[in-house]
Amino acid sequence: MHRIAMNGVGLLLGAALALSGVAVSCSTNDNNPNPQDVGTVVMALTTPDGQTISSVNYTVTDAMGAVVVSDVLDVSNPLATASVAISLRAGTGYSIAMTATTSGGSSCTGSATFNVVAAQTAPVALTLTCGSGGNGGEGNGHVVIDATVVSGGGSCPDILTATVGPLQVALGGSIALKATASAMDVSFSWTSTSGTIAAPTAASTTLTCTTLGMAQVTLTVSRGEICSDSETFSVNCVQNPCDGLGSNCHVVDPGSGVINECHSLGHSGDIAMCAARREECVNACGTALCTTLASLCHNVDPGSGPLNECHVLGHAGDPNACFARGRECFDLCTAAQGTGGTGGAGGATGAAGAPAGTGGGAGAAGAPGGAGGAAGTGGAAGGAGQGGAGGQGPQQVTIQFRAAVGTEPFACGQTYANQGTAATSVTPRDFRFYVQDLRLIDAAGQEVPVTLDVRSPWQAATVALLDFENGQGSCVGSGDVGTNTMITGTVPAGQYTGVAFRNGVPEDLNHDDPTTLPALLRAPQMQWSWLTGFRFVKANLMQVGGAAAQQAAETGATGCSGDPGQGTVVCTRPNRNNVVLTGFNPATNVIVADIAPIFASFNLSQTNECHGTGTVCGPMYTATGVNSTTGAALATQAVYRVE
After folding, report:
1. Given 142, 191, 249, 360, which residue has the most CB atoms within 10 angstroms?
2. Which of 171-185, 239-253, 258-272, 345-359 has the lowest mean pLDDT?
3. DSSP letter (8 states) at residue 594
């Protein structure tokens, strides 16, 4: 058995690429197959015009044209190198073909032939050419073949092929493990010196990186107790020095200074700069988080439990400890603030409200009988029901959302069977969306605008961000650890039986200077460019097993032209839906956002990616309630429902 290691398929970050067919190596040494020496790609392979390549398809055939290995290499994880180790039998006339598709829909192809010779290194140049010759090349790379000898096993079963890749990923990333054997009646066993193997006895499985450093992955194919063949591969789990900077500094970013720089640095993915400034950033953002937690968690501290821990953590003032748990605690205490404790309906009205003289004026939130707690001025002094009828001021409202995949709750790392037209098993990568023009519908059918609370980093005055991914498991590299499942605001007092909203960012913000925007509009990977604007909906799945096919639905305004600096941008297709849901009581119901219908009409064992435009986008826009041809809202949608 002989092994080949393919390294460096990717782009050299910072290289100026303009023409198709220009060969560029991403490896520090093209003849060195060691995964520690190959170039790294931050988040995904990036083309000069800002498009990305998140996966590379490759097929190895023998001299007779028979397919020996065919697989997909996922290069979307942070710090993942475009590298894979393959065990093959010695021979001549092998060939490899690679294909990829950029986020803009351009196809990239390349092929090369090679021989596997024992104990020799055979360099094979392979260029990925993207787009037609006149449109500019978007990426290329090199393959290095490293052949070594592994003794056979006589009549024992042999490993025909074994693939392990990528050979380097960030902490929490996944490495695909796949094998075939020379006989049918054999057992497979995958072991690793660190990490977690999903199905150790399966021919195809995944290794999740849980411990920093090198790990040895061993495949054993056996028949009985003494007849076996084995192969060992080295993989590397590395720390991303940018981890946590984006999410933790995000919530304490004042808009300028060191913390703002650290926040931007975390989202930039500049590994070298993150490493150089990480200690400084942890100290600055951690100190600010301590101060914030001490104040934010104070009023919602019940005296024990997680809220109490976060409150105590803030007062302890340890920057490293606050940085480690800061975003978790910030979200926890913010959510507790949003529920308003136990009152919040308003104070008592007028003179009947409080014998102690603190009853307040007109019952701003309109609660009868002074039943309001902390949010009202007359709740405590007015006694139990002594305030008379409440006023008709605005009332607080919380709109709860819950993500789902069909009938099952959405969760990063969870596997969902029978999805799409081919009943494929998938796992989530991302699910986030912006909401604008939020309205409640009263009993008379009138739509009443909700005045949004300004609640950083999730809400500004006219837009809110719902975020269901936690940056963990299968969602590593997609966003960050923070999640948000609600929108808070106020409406006039009344009874409401429905809700309406749009997925989008208001036009006055969609093409504004990103550096001046509120925190929720600086969330990672939610903006295409200053001109194009924001991703209104970002939904991503990945096939579990098989080819690990990628699914992406990213919607936003398209056909945009003009000068964003001068405020003259016009988009021919606004692509904002108008979701209207009946039978909704904000006090008892929740809006379910179901990712499954977005991909229901696709074969999810194949890659289907929509990045704003392209033929694949039509059914995805339709599911969210948008006519992809005109950009107008449809009368129906399939993603949202009331429960």
Report:
1. 249
2. 345-359
3. E
Running DSSP on this structure, what letter comes out for residue 167?
A: S
With tokens 């996922």, the residue in question is 74
Q: What is the pLDDT of residues 463-505, one digit of tens each?
A: 999 999 988 888 887 777 789 999 999 999 999 999 999 999 9
* Contacts of 533 by beta carbon, 8 Å cutoff, 6+ apart: 505, 510, 511, 527, 556, 557, 560, 569, 571
Q: What is the pTM of this model?
A: 0.47
Give the chain's largest Cα–Cα span: 98
Calpha distance 372→363 (Å, rounded): 9
Beta carbons within 8 Å of 323's beta carbon, 6+ residues apart = 244, 248, 282, 285, 286, 289
In angstroms, the CA 32 to CA 603 distance is 38
Cα–Cα distance, 555 to 183 (Å, whole number): 47
Tell me the one-letter amino acid at 26: C
Query: How many Cα atoms occupy the beta-carbon half-sphere of 455 within 13 Å?
Result: 27
The answer to whether the peptide bond before residue 123 is cis (omega within 30 degrees of 0) is no
Give the 3-state secondary structure percentages of the chain, helix then strand then coil, rounded to 5. 20, 35, 45
Residue 490 burial (10 A CB sphere; 0-12, 13-18, 19+) = middle
8 Å CB contact between 202 and 232? no
Q: What is the DSSP string of 604-635?
A: TTS-EEEESBSTTHHHHHHHHTB-TTT-PBPS
Write the CA distances from 422 to 108, 412, 606, integer angstroms.
26, 22, 10
Helix (H) or strand (E) holding 433, with range, is strand 424-442
The dihedral built from the CA positions of residue 410, 411, 416 and 420, taken in this order, carries a sign that is positive
pLDDT at 408: 95
